[in-house]
Structures are given as structure tokens and as C-alpha cells.
Design brief:
heterodimer, A: alpha/beta, 5 strands, 45% helix, B: 156 residues, mainly alpha
């Protein structure tokens, strides 16, 4: 390798970095240059189970199954904005609420919630993964585009306990669903952070019945 | 034979196209590519975003240069380094038995890491090295020293 080749390499790399930074500055999907670890707030059993509404949510869950979903027109600028561009709402959520909009739960807490039929379970993975197998009763809301399910979510009471899981702690899809729901002002959200990998590792039953949402 | 300019041109246009295709999805969804990088658990958390932003652009810029026949050696070298990094990353992921998306062509075409992927990347690395070794020597390359003066020889 001679100086000319190294000059070429320098130019190629410099152009790429410049374009990347310029694009990132103006793109609506821009990332912060330094990535920060997502905050993980665990929740104590007492806080989790006592904060739930006394009535069983199983009735509510079965209502969702039978409900006929129509296109609902909602005249709410915040919701409209969230629907069209969930990313733009992140700032609003962050400035409105100091604390994180969700807590992280353990496998044990998840199982107890499911057993008691408290809350509604959402699978944030892709449809493909969901069809292959999921936790029993989970509804699929792929984190790539949670806004697609806006009409369904909008009918749920905002204090419904939302339980979300994805593949593993590195998966961003679960957080994407939660960020979206936070813009819709859902108040009680928990993330099963170990996700599908944790579920499989514990050799828990795999379900393939597709639950409509 | 190996330095036949037509073979060289076919190889660099093929290589360029592969990398342009690979970069588009990653550029349009940097958060998804960042998540793919995180899943490999090789890079310090703070550095992930920078890599997720720059790598796809490096692929795109090198791809365009290769197709345009400009800065061929520099681009081939950069891509060879990238491919080596990818190969090492995928092999370590396989050895650690991580069940993760390769992230190779972005989230739209998600494929799990596999020895197949290692093979593909090795093939690309071979082509890239071939370009680096037999490609136009600096100084003789069209547009290399006169890129600034003759803008029509530049791909974009």
C-alpha cells in the first residue's frame, strides 16, 4: 500500500462520516451520537399487584376479542400526531413525564400477572416470529409500526395494564410499542425484558393460536 | 488474465451493487441497525450509534465509487476491512450461540447469523481483495488524480 491508496481510504472514510453526520442531523429518525443504556426500573411485587384495579381484567380482555373493530376517527391532535409520527412524540412524552413510562418485570411477575388475568399481553416481535410461537394469549403488535393498531388501542381504558415482551433485553421493538402507547397516555405499562428468549429458556409452553387484535 | 479489465469491471460493479443494496435499509432505519449491533454484544454501548450511522454510509459511498470506478483501491480496502469485521463478528456470534439477526441487509431482509452468512461475506471479501490487488494502480486510475478537474468521471 502506498500513500495514494491511503489517501483514497482517508477520502472515502471522510466522505462517509460527513454524509452520515449530515444525514443524521436532518433525518427525523436521527440517533443521538452517544448511545445511552435504556433505563430499567424494576417494580416491586407490592407496587405491581396493588396498583391494579380491583376488578379482574379478564372480562375486558374477552371484550377485546369479540369487539368489532371499525375505523375510528379520533379528533385529538396529540393522537393524530402520534399515529402519523410516533418518533415526534417521544420528546413530548419525555418532557411531560420525568419518570420512565414503564417498569421492567421478571418472569415470575409475568407468570403471576398472566395467571390472574391481569392486564393485556402484547408480543412486540414481527408477525413472522409471532406466528411461529408466542406466549399464550399474547396479541401481536409489531414494534416496527405500533401505530397500525391505533384504532384498537384507542378503545382501551388508559389505566389498563399493558404487558409487553420482545425477544430479549437488546430488542428495541418492545420499547417502541411502549413509547407509542405512552403518547396515547397509557399509564400502566410493564415490559418483560428477558422476552421470548427468557420464556423459551425456562421451557415454558409455546402457543401458536393467533389471538386477533 | 486476472487483471483483465472487463473481469475487474464486472467484479467491482457487482460488489458495488451488493453494498449499495445492503446500505439502503440500514440508512433508512438507523435505530434498527443500532439494535442489530447491540445484539452482537461486541461494541461498547456508547459507540453503537456512531457505528450504526457511519457503517451504512461507508458501504454506500464505497459502493458508488466502485461502480463509478473512482477511488477503487481505497473503496476496496475500506470494504475489505468492513467485511473482515463482519466475518469476525458473525463467527463470534455463532460460537457464542447468539440467536440474533445478522443485520447484514437491514431489518427488512432480516436473516439469522449462520455459517452461510460467513461464507457469503468470505466470497465478498475475496472479490474485494481481488479488486484491491489487481485493480487499477493508483496514478493510472481514471479520475484518481484528476477527480477534481474532471467531474464527469465521478459516479454521482
Amino acid at each position: 500500500m502506498n500513500t495514494s491508496t491511503s489517501r483514497q481510504i482517508l477520502i472515502v472514510v471522510a466522505i462517509s462520516i460527513l454524509l452520515a453526520l449530515m444525514y443524521n442531523t436532518f433525518s427525523p429518525k436521527g440517533l443521538p451520537l452517544i448511545r445511552t443504556e435504556p433505563a430499567k426500573t424494576a417494580i416491586s411485587d407490592s407496587a405491581l399487584f396493588n396498583s391494579l384495579p380491583p376488578e379482574s381484567l379478564s372480562a375486558l380482555a374477552s371484550n377485546i376479542d369479540s369487539a368489532q373493530w371499525k375505523d375510528i376517527k379520533v379528533i385529538a391532535p396529540l393522537h393524530e400526531k402520534a399515529l402519523h409520527n410516533p418518533d415526534s412524540m417521544k420528546e413530548v412524552v419525555r418532557t411531560n413525564k420525568e419518570e420512565q413510562p414503564f417498569s421492567v418485570i421478571t418472569l415470575d411477575q409475568l407468570q403471576r400477572l398472566l395467571k390472574a388475568h391481569r392486564g393485556i399481553l402484547f408480543d412486540a416481535r414481527s408477525e413472522e416470529d409471532y406466528v411461529k410461537g408466542h406466549i399464550k394469549g399474547a396479541r401481536n403488535v409489531p414494534g416496527e409500526d405500533p401505530g397500525k393498531h391505533f384504532p384498537q388501542f384507542v378503545e382501551l381504558p388508559r389505566d389498563t395494564l399493558i404487558i409487553v415482551y420482545c425477544n430479549n433485553p437488546e430488542c428495541h421493538l418492545g420499547r417502541s410499542v411502549i413509547e407509542f402507547l405512552a403518547t396515547m397516555e397509557f399509564k400502566k405499562m410493564v415490559l418483560y425484558d428477558d422476552g421470548w428468549d427468557g420464556w423459551e429458556k425456562a421451557h415454558l409452553p409455546v402457543d401458536t393460536t393467533i389471538v386477533k387484535f | 488474465m486476472l487483471s483483465n479489465k472487463y473481469i475487474l469491471a464486472v467484479v467491482r460493479i457487482f460488489l458495488g451493487s451488493v453494498f449499495i443494496v445492503a446500505s439502503i435499509d440500514k440508512i433508512s432505519a438507523p435505530d434498527a441497525f443500532a439494535a442489530s449491533i447491540v445484539a452482537y454484544k461486541l461494541v461498547p454501548y456508547a459507540a453503537v450509534n456512531i457505528l450504526a450511522l457511519v457503517i451504512p454510509w461507508l458501504e454506500l459511498v464505497c459502493g458508488i465509487f466502485l461502480i463509478g470506478g473512482v477511488y477503487v483501491r481505497g473503496s476496496s480496502f475500506a470494504l475489505s476491512v468492513l467485511l473482515t469485521v463482519f466475518i469476525v463478528a458473525i463467527i463470534t456470534a455463532l460460537l457464542r450461540e447468539l440467536k440474533i439477526d445478522c443485520g447484514c441487509f437491514g431489518k427488512e431482509h432480516a436473516t439469522p447469523v449462520s455459517w452461510m452468512k460467513v461464507g457469503e461475506d468470505l466470497g465478498l471479501l475475496l472479490l474485494s481483495m481481488y479488486n484491491l490487488i489487481f485493480g487499477p494502480k493508483p496514478g493510472h486510475e481514471k479520475g484518481e488524480t484528476h477527480a477534481e478537474e474532471t467531474p464527469n468521471s465521478v459516479a454521482f
